[in-house]
Amino acid sequence: MKSDILNADLLYKMDACWRAANCLAVGRICLCENPLRKTPLTLSRVRPLVVGHWGATPGQNFICAHLNRAINAYGPDMISIAGPGHGGPAMAGKVCLEGAWSGVYLDNPEWIVACVVGDGEAETGPLAAAWQSNKMLNPIADGAVLPILHLNGCKISNPALLARTDHGELAQFFRGCGWAPLLVDGDGPAKMHQSMASAGNQAVEEIRQIQKSAREDKNAKRPPWPMIVLRSPKGWTGAKVVDGLPVDGIFRSHHMPLLVDAEHPEHVVQHERWMKSYKAEELFDQDGRLLPELAELAPKGERRMGANPLANGGLLLRELCMPDFREHAVHLPAPGALQTQDARGLGSFLRDVVRLNQSQHAQWLTVIRELPWRRPIASLNYLLASHVWQQDHNGFTHQDPGFPDHVINKKADIVRPYLPPDANCLLSVCDHCLRSRNHANVAVAGKHALPQWPTMDAAVPHCTEVEILAAVSILRAHLPELKIRVINVVDLMRLQSNTEHPHGLSDKDCDSLCTRHKPIMFGLHGYPWLVPQLAYRRTHRDLHVRGYKEKGTITTPFDIRVQNDIDRFHRVQDAVDRLPHMGRKEACLKQVARGKLIEHRRCIEQRGQDLPAIRDWKWTATTP
Asked: How far apart are the C-alpha atoms of 503 and 235, rounded to whole Å?
């Protein structure tokens, strides 16, 4: 690589912008007020609780300064994705200095996304797979990714693996993954600026040449895309030694290596010396603004990475052209008269959605609600295409219904979990999810053929579930005087109070549905403790939940339900146990249920399949 990319004036300005970003970062982490004040630093001006991390920040500031230079030199649409989670002060300082502070994905063929990968995340499983993502890039139609692996030697408190790998081995590894690595290594600012500028030029020029050749020749063959490996000291330009212990370049610089508080008043002078090392008087004017000759190094307008509209999904968002989901309805002669796969109708519906629209993506749902300049963005929609009770080929190893639990723990104004039990309900739910904004929607639906219940018109407000109806039919046959109400919960957040979640029911409405004193038997294809977690504020206390109990194997769908006590016969016994004493009828019905479970077990062991009465069961209004 060339060593004289930057002339003396540009080198000075680049280094000055880097120093300015570092100065702001240290001040943002440690100080209560303007870090540019010329009065002596005192303990009262230091934050009593330091929240922020220094170690990865100077390296990221260095990268951002050089990405800005590349944008000015070559004019691409470019944004930076900061991988190191403890480098937040660098991102805040960058958008401040470029003026974007006050002032959208990869289907853009002219776009370059610089992804900064830190030491710690580089060791994770997802990153090991992500290095292979270049296989998915089409140089004719897609933009480009420029990975920048930032190796500063240490994670939070341990040495980093890739930082301990020598240059040759590291280069071989990334070439094997399909990249053409460019190495920038050192700690002297002047030499590092020249080396990074050269690597940046080479990377952008190689990307442009790859795309030009592919687009002119219509050749989508995968090339070795450039990437940059940056080795720089952890905590670069920070304190060298604190309390007699080395700090620069090792794990001690990860957080804030120089604590200034009531317990360490002697650090005030050293901290002030650190701040002054950036020579703020050469960088900012009397009002704290970056000097004009330095500010001009930032790209202009929407070329600034912090102001690029491609990084603000709400600015690009367009309404989906939605087909009528009713056209994909399952047409039923009668409730329960037909079995089909719930997701089959959804597949044709989503096919039509894709035909009518380009793909869109959603992120940062919680944060953007607090930013008035961020417009609403498309919801993030998950479809979990498997019920916990239907693992015919994998059994226990593939049963994990905990994802809805994880989602529900997020902010109430964001999450929306749905449990549509048949095809028409699934279509209605997914139509709603695809039209929504600023939400994380989760719909759970199976792929196996199941009884279908409501027509499309009835499906919008109504759903049901087969084992519940089977249990109801048994109770009706043996206890005809018993009054049973079946309530279908499609939106789990209805269980919460309307004071906790926008979809929640008021206590009055909840009591009108569930009553205040009758026993409630709740069946959930998930972990049972989720229901009390959502409904704990309700006035009703006679609530009994059956759900997944971490049991299962490679067996029949009904047998998995039996193993987890969620089947119709266990539900019948649960219901009888919670009814007022009914004498002989009660004992006889429980004995019938126990007998059916024994018969089921014998059939499973001898034939390896469910009882014919289970396999062929269908709901009718008078089902015995």
From this structure: 47
What whole-number distance in Å separates Cα of residue 556 and Cα of residue 404?
24
- Distance separating alpha carbons of residues 4 and 561, to the nearest angstrom: 71
Closest alpha carbon to 399 in 507, 557, 283, 279: 557
Cα 81 from Cα 145, distance rounded (Å):
10
| Residue 78 near residue 67 (C-beta atoms within 8 A) | yes
**Most confident range, picked from 51-60, 97-106, 140-149, 582-591:** 140-149
Residues 6+ apart with CB under 8 A from 513: 485, 487, 505
Map residue 114 onto helix, strand or coil.
strand
Q: First-to-last CA distance in the chain?
A: 83
Q: Is the pLDDT of residue 624 over 50?
A: no
pLDDT confidence of residue 150: 92
Alpha-carbon distance of 65 to 615, in angstroms, equals 67
Tell me, what's the pLDDT at 362? 34
CA distance 65 to 152: 18
Please tell me the distance from the alpha carbon of residue 147 to that of residue 117, in angstroms, as a whole number: 7
Which burial class, exposed, middle or buried, applies to 621 when counting CB atoms under 10 A from its CB (0-12, 13-18, 19+)? exposed
* Confidence tier at 401 by pLDDT (50, 70, 90): low
Task: Decide: residue 497, CB within 10 A, 0-12 exposed, 13-18 middle, 19+ buried.
Answer: middle
**Closest by Cα among 222, 224, 228, 178 to 201:** 228
CB atoms within 10 A of CB 80: 24
Alpha helices by DSSP H, listed for 313-422, are: 313-316, 342-356, 365-368, 403-408
Query: Residue 493 has what pLDDT?
Result: 83
Cα dihedral across residues 602, 608, 610, 615: positive or negative:
negative
Judge whether 154 and 163 are in contact, CB under 8 Å: yes
Pairing mode of beta strands 449-452, 338-341: antiparallel
Residues 453-506 have pLDDT tens digits of 677 777 665 545 678 888 888 998 888 888 888 888 888 888 888 888 888 889
Q: Which of 76-80, 474-478, 506-510 is the least confident region?
A: 76-80
Which one-letter DSSP state was computed for residue 598? H
In the block, residue with structure tokens 């019948």: 572
Tokens 């500063």 belong to: 152
Q: How far apart are CA 442 and CA 439, in angstroms?
A: 10
The answer to whether 455 touches 333, Cβ cutoff 8 Å, is: no
The pTM of the whole model exceeds 0.70: no
Nearest Cα to Cα of residue 567 among 588, 546, 595, 543: 546
